[in-house]
Every structure is written in structure tokens, then in C-alpha cells.
Amino acid sequence: MAIRLSGMTSGLDTDSIVKAMVSSYTTRKEKYQKAQTKLEWTQDAWKSLNTKVYSLYSNISNLRFSTAYNLKKTSVSDTTKATVKAGSGAPSGTQSLKIKQMAKAGYMTGAEIKADSEKTTLAQLGYTGGDAKLEVKMGDETKSITLSASSTMNDVVKELRNAGLDANYDSSYKRFYISSKKTGVANDFTITGSNIDGASALYSLGIAYGGEKTTAGTYSSNPYDEYAALHGASDDVTKANIEAAVTSYNNLTTDAAKMNAQSKNLMNAVNYGYSYATLQDIYKKLDAKNAGYSDKLKLLEKLGSSRDGALISKNGDSYDTYTKTTLTDTNGNTLYKYIDSDNNSHYIAAVADKDKDTTSYYDVTESTRTAYTDADGKELEAVPTVVDDTLKVGDKTYKKDEKDGRYYLQKDGTADKTDFITVSQKTEYTIAADAENKTGIESASAAYDTIIKSMDEKTKSSYDEALASVQAFENSKDEVLGSDDKYSVASLTKAIQNAYAGNGKEAVEQLLAGNGNEADGFVNKANALEEAAEANTKKAADSNIVKELASKQKDSAEYTQALNDLLGRVNTAYTLQNKALFNSQVKKVAGQDSEIELNGVKYTGDSNSYSINGLTIEALAETGDSAISITTSTDTQGVYDKVKDFLTEYNNIINEMTKLYNADSAGSYEPLTDDEKDQMSDKEIEKWETKIKDSLLRRDSTLGSVMTAMQTAMMSSVEIGGKKYSLSSFGISTLGFLNAAENEQNAYHIDGDEDDANTSGKTDKLMAAINDDPDTVMQFMQQLSTNLYSAIGDKMKSTDLSSAFTIYNDKQMKTEYTNYTKTIKEWEKKISDREDYYYNKFTQMESAMTKLNSTQSSISSYFS
Questions:
Q1: Who is most buried in 461, 721, 767, 855, counting CB within 10 A?
Q2: Quick one: pLDDT at residue 9?
């Protein structure tokens, strides 16, 4: 950069002069800066609009399915006994409910002790032992606590809480109050001493519970009985008892797990059986319309999400599947691969004819050649001469290094490690010399769409549900059962498929129902196995104390250690059982499971909440043998609100689009430069820029295209039961250009909508239709939503100019923005260079004038 002297000698305003001289360059740069700023604002406007359109697209996705409209409402005859909420799957009608038993948490009220405050210690209560070891057991979980003579009541409360209990010491009543945090038998608790000192500490604290004292002086529920029952005449006998209990526990839990797995499979197989039969019937109907459709559809189903980018080709009675690869042939055409039954790969090349917008497919040949690559990774164009371990390229000689296999350039007998040749085998794909355009090649996704569109709406809905159920069952894996075990997924699948092959849907239904013998029905078998598993689980719980030992590998060091630890507990428990250190005043309420009867079927649980067949039931009080009624019906208001919410969101977006499209022109307004902003107030700048921003999408062709697609979808008619319906059939329409507010002529209004001043006085045809024929309304809304979803989806597809789920050319705009940045930098460089040039000239002038002045001064001095 030149030295910039601002008229030190000449007195000229050099900066202003240079600025004026490069102003034409500056104007060009500012032109591009303004264009870039305008583009940036346009991107922001599109991003904001795109977010809203994508939100609508996402929200209407669920509206395409019947589950979105299967809204239910429910009422209970006695709300003091239960509250009930109905999900979409809840059946309509009245059901009977009895609440036989409420779930309760385990609760203990301790005996009165002599602790005046929370700071009283165990020693002050008379405890003289050492480390008092306690065990808090809740269900399968056991936690250890250690107290000492110096432990206070607060310390005891803290330890009990850390162990997972709710605990409190009330110094007014001098008692501990302890309870489970959750209801149910499985969440009940016991607190025992795991050594003599632990039992003594519990006794001093007034929370040593052993059940109610009997007339014989014993306790009805001694907490040490479970361990003590394993005690034998010697340690060897005790160990043998323990290991026998482990064997019994393992057998019971293994059998229970197997029975539960079988029960679950049987229940799932019921749904699978009906779904399988439904699906096969649909296949038959498809073949009746178009022979071979079922085989093609089954193939396409297996492809699943990989249908996109896959091709299928008819091969005799079956189809070959070609999957898209990342490979290309020697001409750059994309390759698709097919693997035959012998696991051999075959390729076809996709040759696009852009002029005709078509693609042809040709068989390719696969060949391997030796490739030579230089140190930069670039393949040599000319094949070098190779003799043994020497390779020659022109006048250069390379020799092979046996360690890494590379050929290094030789300089005076030394290898140049920066210059080397790599030799490798390269696979190439070339369209076969005699290849003809393969006929019958289809896009897998297009073929699938064609078959699906051949179904009517009802069949399509049945197909979707049946296929999902069939695939879920057939793809499920048994983790407990072997494939050959009774009632495994594999065996049940085979049984149901064989039944259908024998005599169709009727045979499947007979198999599921038990062929006339109710006990042989899948549901009854499942219930019987579940009951047997529950019985085994309860038996296993009786020997639950060996659970940890049972989890160890027998004969391992961990097993031996655990066995010895358990032996110590058994011996201690036996001793404590005989000492009977229990507080007779302690009261314990056992944890209790809830029990209800819904339509005569019993259900139990560890809480008072149940989710059964679409109903969420919250039990509040017992009903005894009296029943309360639950009435479920279609939530017509909910369906109405669903339609109204959809239209509201659509209206908000289409109104905004219309406003943007019809915006006033900004005329000659352009983004301001920094110098121009300096001449204006903040309010003036904001007003100026708003004028431009509001007009950015005016008459935009892309916006117009999206609007047209959405409007066309909303105006489309739907055929249901041979009759055509449109939004106007249900009293939903626009107000028209003459009656609508500005830029709201494309918005829809519901006749009779009390929130809409424009149509509130009209007859509410929509609610009437929902009440009279909800199925028709739901089917119409499903198809309308599908049409709109597809219309928006088509506009959001990825292209060379736009990303996926984007309605505008974001890629193109990003490229344009980058190009502007590059151009602006180029013009900044030109301005800088030009300024340097002029400043250099002025500097030279200033230097010359300085010399001239100096000379004149010298001459003048001679005459002075």
C-alpha cells in the first residue's frame, strides 16, 4: 500500500479527491452490496414462511389417518369412586366397573420411646452396642444401614430416607412414622437387624416389628423367619438348604419366564391371525384385478423404506431387485446392483437422456486393471514400464519398498519419500458391448404407489393396519423361547399360515377360537399360562432371599463369597428369631394392591391407575359389590374442534401468503448504504427498510405456485360411497373476493361457527354432519388432508436448487449470496488498488513540490 499524504505541501484535500476519483468503483460495489442485502432479507422472509408451511405439513400428517378423528368422551355414574378418560381406541357404549380394593402403601407407626427431641442419641435411649447393621427391604431391593450409639433420631430419619422410605420422627408423640413411597404389595417394606446389635437398635428405636403378639407369647409375622427357615443343624446342612432353594428359585423363575413368553405370543398371535387373513384376502382381490399384483406388492413390502432408490425387474414368475449404489460406470452413469441366488452381483447402468427426460438401463461388465497413482492421489494417464521391482515413468526411475509396497523415486541411489507411485487393482464398470436397453425396469416406489392407489380408501386402511400387525409379529424375536418351542413366534406363525392355506380365513378363526373347544382358544391358553407364571413367580418370591446368589456363576469366587454371606445372615436371623426383640406397640399396615372388575374381568395392580382397552381409569374409592357405569361415545365437539383447528392454521398461512404475494411494490427503494443511514434517523431507516421487506415476495412465481397447489388441494372433491363431497358440503367455504377482508379471500369459514362474526348466524352443517354421519366426515377429512399433505410435500421435494422440506430455492439463493460476497471482495480489491494508485501519484506530487520548495528556498538564500 502506498504512503498516503493528505496535501501536506500542496494543501489539497487528497482524501476527498481520491474518493471522488474512485466513486464509480464504489458505486458498483454498493450495487452488489445492496443486492446481497436484499437477497439476505428475501432468504429470511422465505425461512420464516417455510417454517410455518412445514409446521402445517407436519401437523396434517396425522390427520390423514382415522385415529386422528377417533376422539371419545366418557362419563362416570359416580365420580367419587373413579375418574375415567377415553382414548381414541376406546369402544363406544356403557361398561360396568367395580373397585374391589384400593392400593395402599406400607405404613408403620412406631412404639412410644423416650427421645425428647430429634437430637436424642441411641445411647440416651439405652443402646450400648457397637455398629448396628440394619436391612431395609422393598420388593426385590435390599439396602443396608449402619447406626451407632451416637446416631441421633435425625440420623435415623436421614438413613431411612436414603434407603427409599418416607420417614419422620415426631418428638411430640415420641414415635417414628415410616411408609413406602409407592403403593402396592411389591413396594411394601420390612426393616430388620442383620446382626444382634441391629436388632437391639431397632428395639430401642421402637420400630422392631414382628407382627401381632399371640397368646402363646410369639409373634405372628416374625421378619427373620424367611432367612431362619433355611437354618440347619450345621453350616453344611444350612448351605445345602440354601443351594436347594437356589435350584428351586431358578426353576420357578425360568418356567415363569417361559410361560409369560408363551402367553404373550399367544395373545399377539390372535391379532396376527386376523390381520394375516385380512392381508391375504386383500392380496387375492388385487390379483383378481391385476394378475401378479400380490407378488409384486409382497416384494415391495419387504423393501420397506429402501424402496426409494430401488428398481425392480420382472424375471419369469418373480422379480429381481436392483438397489442404488454409489458406484458409477466409466461414463459416470449411476449403477444399480442385483444379487442373484448364488450371491453373484450384477449391475445395470442408468443412462439419463435429459432432452427427453427419460432413463435407459443397460447391463454392465465388471473388469479389473492395474492402476498407478502418484503421491497426490492422481492416477497416471500413461501406463509406466514395470520390470520386477523397478518402475519407470519417462526418465524417472522408481523402486519398490518391500515394507509399504510403494515405489519411491530414486535420486543418487536414495529413495525420495515425497515422490512415490502406488500400484493397486482398480475395478471398472463398462456398459456391455452388446447391451440393449432393458425393458420392464420399474421404480420400486412408483410401482408401490401404483398398487396402493388401486385400492379404495377402506381397503387401503385395512391393508395398512393388517400389514403393520403382520410385520410386527413376524419380525418379533423370541428372547426366552427357542424357535422349536411350543408357542414360539415361529411355530405360531407357521400354524396360522398353514390354517389359512387349508381353508382361508374361516380356518384361522377356528384355530384362534379353539375349534369349538373354548379352552383351546389362544386367549384362554394365554390366560392359563399367565396364571401359572404368576403362581410360579409367587413361589419364587418365597425364596427371594437367594435371588442374588442365583444370579452368580456357580463354583465362581463371587458365588462362594455370596453363599458365605448368606450363610451368615441365616445364622444371625435364626439367633434373632429366638431372641424375639420386638416392640408389641408397633402397628404396621401392609402394602396392598388394588383390584378392579371391568365388565366382570378382574384386574390387579400396585397403583390405583389402570389403562385398559383405550380407557384410563383412576380408582378413588371402593364400590364393594356395587357397580358404577362408564359411558363412552364419540366426542363430536372434539372432532369439530379438530377440523376447526386445522382450518385456522391453514387460514393463517394462506392469508400470510396472499398478503406477501399481493404486497405493494417498493418501487425504486433499495437497501441503504452506511453513508445514507448516517443521514437518516432510526425511525426513518426502519420505515424505509420495512417498505422493501414487505415487497420482497410480491408476485413471486414460487410463492404463487405453492399457493395454487394448496388451494387446488383444498378445493378438491372426495368420493365416498359413490357420492362426491367437498368442503362446501359441510358448510365450509371462502367468503369470496367481494365479501372477504383484504388478502383473506382464500381463507375458509365454517357456517355457524360462534367465534366467526362472518358466519356465526348460519346453520352449522359441519356439527350436524358429525352428529349424523361422523364416518363420512372423518373419511372426507382424511382424504382432504392427504391431498394437501401430498401437494405441500411435492413442493418440498429436494431438487438441484432446493433442499428437502423446503418450498423455495434455498440452495440457489445460498450460491447467489456466496457469489455476491466474492464479487464484493473483488470490487473492494479494485477500489483499494485504485486508491493506492491515486495516492501514490499524489505522494509523488507532494514529494516533487517539497523538493521544488526546498530548491526555491536555497536560491532565495543567495539573494538575501
A1: 767
A2: 61
